[in-house]
Specification:
The protein has 3 helices and 14 strands. By secondary structure, it is an alpha+beta fold. It has 2 domains: about 80 residues, no CATH class; about 130 residues, Immunoglobulin-like, CATH 2.60.40. The strands form 3 sheets. Strands 3, 5, 8, 11, 12, 13 and 14 form a 7-stranded antiparallel β-sheet that branches. Strands 4, 6, 7, 9 and 10 form a 5-stranded antiparallel β-sheet that branches. A two-stranded antiparallel sheet has the order 1-2. It is elongated.
Length: about 220
């Protein structure tokens, strides 16, 4: 039997290349079985020398340590996820600002539409649309510096009529002094009313919609 079988299978992360689907990782037991088989069927005229044997045992030890480390990392990831979910529960009842250009409007009340731009702009507009995507109001932003900005919307359409209560979307289009488009980020605001879980990940319920905790940019009491 070729004395390099275990070596060739163990180099580059211990792989089994005999399958149709490409390389598959060998476990510790499979590695040890290969090594034992190699010793049983080695050529008596060309026995495995001590250097090769020690090298292969070292590879076995490294494989076992790698598997242990993977297990430890998996446990740590799970614990971090559980801690994150526990922390999210403390946000219930808090007012938060999250990524996303949507807003809940109550008829007759004004609301703040927040956005940020990464650089100074020479012109820009904000469009507000209803649930069907129809634009009902537009604001001229003019010249603005980089940073966070807000438009106070009185809840009326372009004709001055109060819009029905419900969810509305808004987006910002802007350009700099060179006439290039400047990407703007929009934000939604609301109170965290609860938490829902999907595949072990916590989502905050803000304005009746699930929001990943990673989308939160500001928390207010």
């Amino acid at each position: 039997m070729n004395t390099g079988i275990v070596q060739s299978l163990s180099q580059g992360g211990v792989a089994n290349t005999g399958g149709v689907g490409g390389t598959n990782p060998l476990g510790k037991d499979a590695f040890l079985k290969l090594l034992t088989t190699q010793l049983q069927f080695q050529d008596p005229l060309k026995p495995l020398n001590s250097t090769e044997f020690i090298a292969q045992l070292t590879q076995l030890t490294q494989l076992e340590e790698t598997q242990k480390m993977s297990s430890v990392l998996a446990d740590a990831t799970r614990q971090i996820g559980e801690l994150s979910n526990y922390s999210a529960a403390g946000l219930i009842g808090k007012q938060v600002r999250v990524l996303g250009g949507s807003v809940r409007v109550t008829e007759g009340e004004s609301t703040s539409l927040t956005y940020s731009i990464p650089e100074k702009i020479r012109s820009g507009i904000m469009d507000i649309a209803d649930s069907t995507g129809t634009i009902i109001q537009t604001f001229d932003l003019g010249v603005q510096s980089a940073g966070m900005h807000a438009i106070i919307w009185d809840g009326k359409d372009a004709n001055g009529a109060a819009v029905p209560s419900g969810k509305y979307l808004y987006r910002v289009a802007a350009e700099n002094a060179e006439g290039n488009l400047v990407p703007a980020s929009t934000y939604a605001q609301g109170q965290v009313s609860g938490i829902t879980y999907d595949n072990g990940i916590a989502y905050l319920m803000v304005n009746g919609e699930p929001v990943p905790a990673s989308d939160i940019v500001q928390i207010n009491n």
